[in-house]
């Protein structure tokens, strides 16, 4: 099980209630011996698009309440960084805004049966910088709780702003 929280920073300020409610749903499901949701995915890309295909199997576990995509674009081609705050290069202990926001986007339902839903999200490569995206699926839990699960984040293009380095040649700097 995996959960990504859009528009959060490392301390998850403003998201603690959401996190606690997801943990509560998971805990109550385990405690009550309820079947957990099944969410699997594949990530791929070609020369123009990135793609996530999520399979939700509710043959044993709960049927999803909803599914939504999230996407965000970096501010430039220098930072492959989707955090809301970063370290200030002139004072690394001081946070600095990095206004990269995650927005919801529609999914494509590729297939649906009585026990399975397959949905996907394809994102075109940006003209500059990087675009990240993932799928979130919400499931009903015990006592009216909701269990929010996500896929991993796909980032396109699959490139980095610096060359790979090894050993002594890796002298880090904040950008």
UniProtKB/TrEMBL annotation:
InterPro entries, A to Z: PhoPQ-act_pathogen-rel_PqaA (IPR009199)
Domain of life, source organism: Eukaryota
Pfam families: PhoPQ_related
PANTHER family xref list: AUTOCRINE PROLIFERATION REPRESSOR PROTEIN A
Protein name in the entry: Uncharacterized protein
């Amino acid at each position: 099980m995996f959960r990504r929280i859009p528009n959060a920073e490392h301390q998850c300020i403003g998201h603690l209630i959401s996190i606690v409610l997801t943990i509560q749903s998971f805990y109550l499901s385990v405690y009550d011996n309820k079947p957990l949701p099944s969410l699997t995915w594949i990530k791929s890309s070609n020369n123009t698009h990135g793609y996530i295909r999520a399979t939700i199997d509710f043959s044993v576990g709960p049927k999803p309440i909803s599914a939504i995509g999230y996407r965000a674009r970096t501010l430039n081609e220098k930072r492959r960084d989707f955090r809301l705050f970063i370290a200030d290069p002139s004072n690394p202990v001081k946070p600095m805004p990095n206004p990269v926001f995650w927005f919801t986007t529609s999914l494509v339902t590729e297939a649906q049966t009585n026990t399975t839903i397959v949905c996907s999200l394809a994102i075109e490569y940006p003209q500059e910088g990087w675009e990240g995206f993932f799928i979130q699926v919400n499931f009903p839990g015990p006592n009216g709780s909701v269990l929010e699960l996500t896929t991993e984040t796909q980032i396109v293009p699959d490139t980095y702003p610096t060359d790979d380095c090894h050993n002594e040649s890796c002298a880090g700097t904040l950008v």
